[in-house]
Inverse folding.
């Protein structure tokens, strides 16, 4: 049996009650010169509860647009997104989002930046103080909660932004190239940390990346997308045992998946 | 010695050096006092005339402060309205830019006709000239927020007013203070211009009188007082800035 396992975008266990259902979803943007651009083209995708799914594709392929559509931050031109059965028609708030830019507020400490999650919701952050401290400590920033963002390294800042996305314990975590701006070593460490957080909390994660290795390392399923307009090219199931350590990258199953996706990108003309 | 005391020591030293050089040049080249008076002569004038100069200084400072505060109190809310409402932006922005095309100093004679020789026309010129940089910088500041930050806040269910108060406004403060500092210097120019055009009080009036009488020592004395007032004013804004936004990159200790 080959190490590469093709999978379906929609055919998952109990697909009818999938946590996220993306149904014939398309998004067209008006560009500056008035010509409409198709960013997401007829995407069908089901994502199960507690599943870790990566959207993998070249820059500008519409994968971030797809993520914003799932979050309800933009509305589709046609089709629909359902989360837990309910159509998403407004920003979905039972959610944590992490962007490539950590988006920390310069005027707040680490603790204040995590608690902003509650203040933005109009809730009193004080009852959550203890949990926020514990969460910050769990990502290795125990001694930094009173520091300001500019006193932290890029990796530490992104850890804070992950804490901010988790503090209200949402069932769904959306991540838009969260490690894209980090150096290679920090990036690998954060991937391991994220896997640990995901395994202990069993949240559903939708993870946008253009790094093949990152997608294969982290995901249950990798959704490979075409260049604009973004369509699903192929879906791979990554059946590597968890927890995956850094040594997984040296193994043949990992390499076979990376090779396969590389080949797909060559076929699509993304890598020449 | 702390960094701040070192800063103070160095600025005092640099001023003393300038005064010393000034004195030296006057002595060595035997420059006539009606062209450039020696520092001691200027100081003497200030000490001798401190009572009248003090009154004029208060008068001018009042005009500067009133013009500046009025500008800030009108400009910042106006900028907020322009950023929040597209309708108000279309309505208010073009005429506001148009008023800036008029050299505001040229309006001073008109204000004398309208408001007489009192404090009001001086405040009006100071207000007009200080107004624009505050509006522009506040608008730029309020707009320069990462669009993803707004998206993130929306995903937290934050209504627009909360996004404005908790994100846009604090994010804009460094820019707003940039505008206020430029405006603080311009307000001095505005108040003085008002006094030049028509006044019987204020440091601008003293300058015109001293010039007419070729009283160069008094001219210099007035200039010194004006610089001190303008500097004190600028630093007052900076102190407030330091208290309000200690987190901003411009306020952090500079690496030595």
């Amino acid at each position: 049996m080959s190490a590469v396992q093709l999978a379906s975008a929609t055919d998952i266990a109990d697909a009818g009650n999938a946590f996220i259902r993306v149904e014939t979803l398309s998004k067209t943007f008006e560009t500056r010169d008035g010509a409409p651009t198709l960013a997401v083209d007829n995407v069908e995708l089901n994502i199960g509860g507690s599943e870790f799914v990566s959207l993998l594709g070249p820059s500008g392929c519409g994968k971030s647009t797809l993520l914003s559509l799932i979050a309800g931050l933009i509305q589709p031109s046609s089709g629909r997104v359902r989360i837990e059965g309910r159509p998403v028609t407004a920003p979905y708030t039972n959610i944590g989002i992490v962007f490539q830019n950590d988006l920390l507020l310069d005027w707040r400490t680490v603790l204040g930046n995590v608690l902003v999650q509650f203040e933005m919701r109009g809730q009193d952050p004080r009852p959550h103080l203890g949990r926020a401290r514990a969460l910050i400590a769990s990502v290795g920033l125990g001694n930094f909660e009173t520091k300001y963002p500019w006193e932290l390294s890029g990796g530490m800042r992104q850890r804070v932004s992950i804490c901010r996305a988790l503090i209200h314990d949402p069932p769904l975590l959306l991540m838009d190239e969260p490690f894209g701006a980090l150096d290679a070593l920090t990036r690998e460490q954060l991937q391991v940390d994220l896997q640990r957080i995901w395994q202990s909390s069993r949240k559903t994660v939708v993870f946008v990346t253009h790094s093949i290795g990152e997608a294969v390392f982290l995901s249950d399923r990798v959704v490979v997308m075409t260049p604009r307009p973004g369509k699903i090219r192929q879906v791979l199931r990554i059946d590597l045992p968890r927890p995956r350590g850094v040594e997984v990258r040296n193994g043949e199953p990992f390499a076979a998946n990376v090779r396969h996706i590389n080949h797909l990108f060559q076929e699509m003309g993304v890598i020449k | 010695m702390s960094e701040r005391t070192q800063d103070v020591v160095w600025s005092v030293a640099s001023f003393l050096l300038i005064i010393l050089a000034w004195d030296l040049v006057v002595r060595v080249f035997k420059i006539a006092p009606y062209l450039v008076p020696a520092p001691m002569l200027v100081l003497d004038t200030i000490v001798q005339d401190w009572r009248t100069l003090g009154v004029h200084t208060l008068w001018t400072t009042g005009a500067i402060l009133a013009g500046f505060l009025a500008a800030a109190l009108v400009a910042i809310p106006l900028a907020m309205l322009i950023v929040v409402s597209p309708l108000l932006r279309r309505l208010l922005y073009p005429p506001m830019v148009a008023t800036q095309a008029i050299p505001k100093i040229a309006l001073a004679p008109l204000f004398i006709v309208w408001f007489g020789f009192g404090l009001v026309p001086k405040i009006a010129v100071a207000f007009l000239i200080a107004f624009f940089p505050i509006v522009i910088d506040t608008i730029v500041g309020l707009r320069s927020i990462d669009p993803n930050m707004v998206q993130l806040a929306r995903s937290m269910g934050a209504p627009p007013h909360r996004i404005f108060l908790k994100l846009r406004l604090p994010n804009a403060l460094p820019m707003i203070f940039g505008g206020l500092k430029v405006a603080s210097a311009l307000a001095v120019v505005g108040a003085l211009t008002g006094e030049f055009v028509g006044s019987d009080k204020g440091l601008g009036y003293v300058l015109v009188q001293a010039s007419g009488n070729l009283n160069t020592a008094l001219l210099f004395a007035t200039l010194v007082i004006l610089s001190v007032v303008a500097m004190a004013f600028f630093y007052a804004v900076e102190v407030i800035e330091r208290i309000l936004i200690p987190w901003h990159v411009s306020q952090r200790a500079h690496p030595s």
